[in-house]
């Protein structure tokens, strides 16, 4: 049995270990057990005269081993003189001083056997532990030094305690480090769109975007300049075309006035037949006032249409020449879409018409004097003059219509060229947008899954050597209004800490803004 695994005082163990440095033998062992093992008489019960209850054993001796049992029995029943045991009459046995038989035993241990009675007396005085196996009387129990055993037992206890402390500390440290984690949590806080399946950790590709933007400006710059020129040409052609149409409209209006005047003259002819002076004189005055008012109204409407400052004082209320001068002064700083030369020509033409009217009116007045004589001759020249005026107006209308055809062609050409320039601009921009979309794909370092609600989680970064604590870039792509919107911003990864990210709608911009 191995005693080294036992504790200092295990439960149910009937004895304690001797102190270090003392031998474990029958002569020096002290009584340490509190349990009473047996009587401490000097003689066994069957040899004591006071105790009659224990008859002597039938046989005294050792186990049958090596053929010694018979000799021991004989030696115990018929003791020799060497035992020195005498039986007095009082029934007690007296033992003489024991002799040292160690030399005999060492010489021949098989033939020199110890006295069984004395051996039993020693066993009675020093009973062995119950749990220890009985030793053979033929061989003496070897003595052990307990110092080595006790030291080994103490070292075992010390090692066990050390292992317990080390295990406790290791478990605590392991628990502490197992709960430490570097992770990133986030939410894409954009509503009303379908979330992408993943977001990306990328390298900083702002330098690539800047280089692409420089190339884009170098290539699209001439195209933008051409588009601007085409727009200006188109605007100029539109202005010229508008002015020409307005001139044609005014000429047609004069033609209509001349035709109306002819009708008036015809009506006057009918009235002059009845009342030459009573009606025709009044009609000439009314006609003069009417023409003067119409001329003034035409100047006001024309100035209002052109957006120029046209003022007539009270002293100049009935002077068409003053109106023309005021109209020409207002054309010194006209808007860019107005042609002052053409407008001055129009004013001179109106003044000329007015002078013609004055002449005609004066002529009519002169004719009224002789109207009574030649009424028929008075109507013919006036009608003829009006018809000639109408022919002149129609000729100018035809010339203007001939001018309008090339202007319309020029306007159509400018529209077509502008559309081509804008199409070239669109293709260049589309090509560079495709190149822009490829830049982040070459810079992706990690893909993070994204839930349909916009939440993402990136855990156990402390176990990922690719992402040590530091600054990184998050790139998120969504689809909105038929095009891509990007959100690119930096964020930190802190060691053994939680980094929370909320991507707001304001951080998303359309991809084409990166090229503007």
From TrEMBL:
Query: Which segments show compositional bias classed as Basic residues?
Result: 29-38, 51-62
* Name the record gives this protein: Uncharacterized protein
Which residues fall in a coiled-coil region?
A: 224-261, 358-431
Organism ancestry: Bacteria, Pseudomonadati, Verrucomicrobiota, Methylacidiphilae, Methylacidiphilales
The annotated region (Disordered) lies at 1-64, 89-146
Alphabetically list the UniProt keywords. Answer: Coiled coil, Membrane, Transmembrane, Transmembrane helix
TM ranges: 158-179
What spans are recorded as compositionally biased (Polar residues)? 99-109, 132-146
List the source organism.
Methylacidiphilum caldifontis
């Amino acid at each position: 049995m191995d005693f080294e695994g036992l504790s200092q005082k295990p439960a149910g163990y009937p004895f304690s270990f001797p102190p270090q440095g003392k031998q474990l033998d029958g002569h020096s062992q002290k009584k340490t057990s509190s349990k009473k093992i047996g009587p401490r008489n000097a003689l066994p019960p069957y040899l004591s005269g006071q105790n009659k209850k224990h008859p002597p054993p039938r046989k005294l001796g050792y186990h049958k081993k090596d053929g010694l049992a018979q000799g021991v029995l004989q030696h115990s029943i018929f003791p020799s003189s060497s035992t020195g045991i005498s039986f007095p009459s009082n029934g007690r046995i007296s033992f003489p001083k024991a002799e040292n038989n160690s030399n005999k035993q060492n010489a021949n241990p098989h033939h020199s056997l110890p006295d069984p009675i004395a051996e039993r007396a020693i066993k009675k005085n020093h009973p062995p532990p119950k749990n220890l196996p009985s030793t053979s009387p033929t061989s003496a129990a070897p003595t052990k030094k307990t110092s080595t055993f006790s030291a080994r037992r103490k070292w075992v206890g010390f090692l066990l305690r050390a292992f317990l402390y080390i295990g406790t500390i290791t478990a605590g440290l392991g628990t502490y480090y197992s709960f430490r984690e570097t992770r990133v949590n986030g939410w894409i806080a954009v509503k009303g769109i379908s979330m992408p399946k993943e977001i990306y950790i990328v390298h900083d590709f702002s330098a690539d975007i800047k280089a692409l933007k420089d190339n884009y400006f170098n290539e699209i710059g001439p195209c933008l300049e051409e588009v601007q020129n085409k727009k200006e040409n188109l605007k100029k052609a539109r202005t010229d075309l508008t002015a020409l149409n307005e001139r044609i409209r005014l000429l047609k209006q004069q033609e209509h006035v001349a035709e109306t005047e002819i009708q008036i003259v015809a009506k006057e002819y009918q009235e002059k037949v009845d009342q030459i002076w009573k009606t025709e004189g009044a009609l000439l005055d009314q006609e003069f006032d009417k023409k003067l008012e119409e001329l003034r109204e035409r100047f006001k409407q024309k100035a209002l249409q052109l957006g120029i400052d046209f003022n007539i004082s009270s002293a100049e209320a009935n002077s068409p020449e003053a109106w023309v001068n005021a109209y020409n002064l207002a054309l010194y700083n006209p808007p860019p879409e107005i042609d002052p030369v053409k407008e001055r020509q129009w004013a001179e033409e109106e003044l000329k018409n007015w002078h013609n009217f004055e002449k005609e009116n004066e002529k009519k007045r002169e004719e009224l004097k002789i109207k009574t004589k030649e009424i028929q001759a008075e109507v013919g020249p006036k009608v003829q003059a009006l018809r000639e005026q109408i022919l002149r107006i129609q000729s100018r209308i035809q010339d203007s219509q001939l001018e309008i055809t090339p202007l319309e062609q020029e306007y159509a050409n400018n529209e077509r060229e502008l559309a081509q320039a804008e199409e070239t601009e669109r293709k260049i921009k589309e090509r560079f947008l495709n190149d822009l979309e490829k830049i982040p794909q070459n810079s992706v370092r990690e893909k993070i899954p994204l839930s349909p609600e916009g939440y993402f989680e990136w855990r156990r970064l402390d176990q990922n050597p690719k992402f040590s604590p530091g600054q990184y870039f998050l790139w998120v792509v969504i689809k909105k209004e038929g095009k891509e919107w990007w959100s690119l911003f930096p964020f930190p990864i802190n060691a053994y800490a939680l980094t929370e990210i909320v991507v707001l709608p304001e951080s998303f911009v359309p991809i084409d803004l990166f090229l503007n």
